[in-house]
Amino acid sequence: MYRATVFLQRLEPRTARTTAEVVKVALWPLAIMTVLHRVLVKAVNGFRTDDFAPVYRAALAFLNGEPVYTANFGTVDPHYLYAPSGTLLLSPIAVVEPELSRWLFIGTNAAAVIVAGWLLLKMFDLTLSSVAAPILLLGMFASETVTNTLVFTNVNGLVLLGEIAFLYLLLRRKDAWAGVAIGLTLAVKPILAPLLLLPLVSKQWRVFVTAVGIPLILTAVAWPLAADPMEFINHTLPYLTESRDYFNSAIVGNGAYYGLPTPLILLLRVLFAVVVLVSLWLLYRYYREDRLFFFTTASGVLMAGSFLLGSLGQGYYSMMLFPLLMSVVLRNSVMRNWPAWLAVYGFMSYDSWLSVRFPAAGRAAEYMKTTFGWSLLLLVICGVLVVRYLTAKREGRLDGGIDPVFPADEPAEKPRASVVA
């Protein structure tokens, strides 16, 4: 009885708690239970499609010396599209039976997302004791992108970890290790390839030694071990260069689905390409010395631009935008406005807009919300940067950068994270 009383007394603070403490007390249980629900219930149950099954079959075929690249691209079922280097890296999943392997793969990806979140906190000089930690964990696992990555059981959680590790190591000028982090992801899928522009413009050349070397070495090892490596070139690679009109939130995918004229689709892609280029130029011209802001913001522009303008953009790719979203803690962040977070709702929300009462409108909202989110995000970032530039030019202070003039009581040093513990 005495021990129970002591425990209950701990639930009642002796002094008034701060707002940050109250938020942490409220959000940690919600975050932890959301993680457990997504992993143990949603992911284990599965839903709609299964990205893991074709990967497991390909890994098993690779280990048994059988053909791997035999997919029928005339169906809408998930296809195996990874290069021989990726097949080599993923082949250990076929060592155990399929169901256990799938569960282990779910757990590995969930752990990768959690570790990526921890590295993201460290990148912004935040700790697990800060109020940002439970907010980030809850936001990640409540999102469509992490939820469907686990439910469909694909490799994107590990790719996210590679992205965050790459940026973290790049910021700390551990270039060779940064190349290792992104090189391992490129060996599986090239989704992070646009991020190689960052070490290119920052002249961190050693990144490319390992970033390019690792996929080449793994390919050299996997090629003679595979039964049909040339079929990746002859059969799979042509399919990867095409766009499809289903499960594709890129401009070209949704445009084809809704039957837009080809010239209009091309015009939209050109317009958003200009938006991306203008944003990247302003970031490079005025922010490249502020490395944390530059890398996190430019990475978001590069990733969102590649999803929107490329041949294939799927909603759960959006987890690669977490560094940009986390930059909201910086006082000069481009994410400190409500339109930016309206965009985030579009590509992060797990809400379904399919409607029984309004089927046509609901289907359009459901299929377009990710495309809308990526588009609006790019427009907001470009708009914020252009307005900053025009304001600084009008006030004659371009030589000092284009950051807005902050109140005098804010610190004058390089912007850092403003979330307190």
From TrEMBL:
Q: Where are the transmembrane segments?
A: 103-120, 126-143, 150-171, 177-198, 205-226, 264-284, 291-309, 372-390
Q: What is the E.C. number?
A: 2.4.-.-
For the keyword Isomerase, the answer is no
Determine if Acyltransferase is one of this entry's keywords. no
Q: Which GO terms describe its molecular function?
A: glycosyltransferase activity
Provide the topology term for how it sits in the membrane.
Multi-pass membrane protein
Q: Where in the cell is it found?
A: Cell membrane
Q: Which domain of life is it from?
A: Bacteria
Q: What is its main location?
A: membrane
Keywords from the UniProt entry:
Cell membrane, Glycosyltransferase, Membrane, Transferase, Transmembrane, Transmembrane helix
| Cross-referenced Pfam families | GT87
- UniProt family annotation: Belongs to the glycosyltransferase 87 family.
Question: What is the protein name for this chain?
Answer: Glycosyltransferase family 87 protein
Q: What is the lineage of its organism?
A: Bacteria, Bacillati, Actinomycetota, Actinomycetes, Mycobacteriales
